[in-house]
Every structure is written in structure tokens, then in C-alpha cells.
Amino acid sequence: DSGVTQTPKHLITATGQRVTLRCSPRSGDLSVYWYQQSLDQGLQFLIQYYNGEERAKGNILERFSAQQFPDLHSELNLSSLELGDSALYFCASSVRADNTEAFFGQGTRLTVV
Amino acid sequence: AQSVAQPEDQVNVAEGNPLTVKCTYSVSGNPYLFWYVQYPNRGLQFLLKYITGDNLVKGSYGFEAEFNKSQTSFHLKKPSALVSDSALYFCAVRPSSGNTPLVFGKGTRLSVIA
Questions:
Q1: CB contact under 8 A, A100 and B49
Q2: Residue B47 burial by CB count (10 A; 0-12/13-18/19+): exposed, middle or buried?
Q3: Among partner residues A58, A100, A107, which is closest to B43 by beta-carbon distance?
């Protein structure tokens, strides 16, 4: 168990809908990262937050947004969902912002139908 | 921009034999290199990292990796494979300076056959 908790584990929703994925980092970790894992694209970095502030942005679509709250948990919001958004979404956390060792949650499997 | 190549989608090895999972990278400046393992329906688990120092890095579960700067490689190795090592292995890289997120390879599926 990495100490990173993601909910829900599975999510099935229809195209056009909006969902929120939640991540609780390891105790003491200030940095949270979101990754998308799909069969054709591999593991893609989406966005990083450090102590409540956006720190780095990757290949995140405009339909997606995220935030990190004062208690350091993070949420990834996915809207206007398309079939191609079906993927495994991982959250990872690390103590510092420099990502030298990140611990991953078990992921949320999103299926868009 | 940094990148990682894992040239083999699949590696098959007999139990008890040595295994190698290959990784080459491209990065500006010095690299930080990582290996992660993913078991079915699980998140990625950290195996080992190279930050600086000795080119041979030892990690969890008997795995090790050798950093080769001239060949820009960071191959994962284990002297004697176990069936339980069967999983998806990811190599990742980021530059040692700045705050750049990890870039992952596409993964190599290791199958250890009894």
C-alpha cells in the first residue's frame, strides 16, 4: 500500500457527462500529480500541484481541470466526456515538488460509454 | 524535451534465468532515472532510482539497474527471475535541474514462465 488513496476505483459514465476523481496523498506529501494511462498513449502526465498551487502542466485537455485543497487532497474534473477519455487515471504524491520519488495510488478506471 | 524508449513491448524469460528490461532515454543535462512496476489492477510501485553516484543501483525485490551515460541507457536487471516478477515495467526520466515531471516509457510486459 503506497499510502495514496484514490476514489472511486471504477467509474462508468455516458458521453457528455462530467465526473470528479479524488486523490488523497500520503501523509506529509505536499505535491500531487495526475497521470492518464491509456493503451495507445501509455502513461501521460496531466498536471501537478504543490501545496495548493499549480506547479506544472502536461498534456491536459481544456475539458479537464484540477485543484488541490488546503487539506492537500486533490480532485481531477473531467467534463464533456468522450469515448476516448476512457482510461486509467493515476494520482501520485511526493514530499517535495521535484518529483524525485513519487508514490502512486491504485488508479481510477474511467469508462465512457 | 525528454523522452524514454523501451524497445521491447514484451520480454519472456524462464524462471531462474537472468532478466533484462531495456530502457534508453533522452534528456537535456543530467538525468534522474526511475523504474516502476505495475501489477494487474494496481498502481505503479517504485522499484529504484538513479540520482547520482554509483552507476549500479540496487532496488526492491532483488532488481538492479545500470546507468550508462555514454549509451544513455538504464536497463533493469535481475539475476534470477521469479514467476511473481511477471508484470508491466516502466522506465521514467526527468532532468536533474528544474521542476519537470517524470516522462514515462510505454512499458514492457515481463512474463516469467515456470
A1: yes
A2: buried
A3: A107
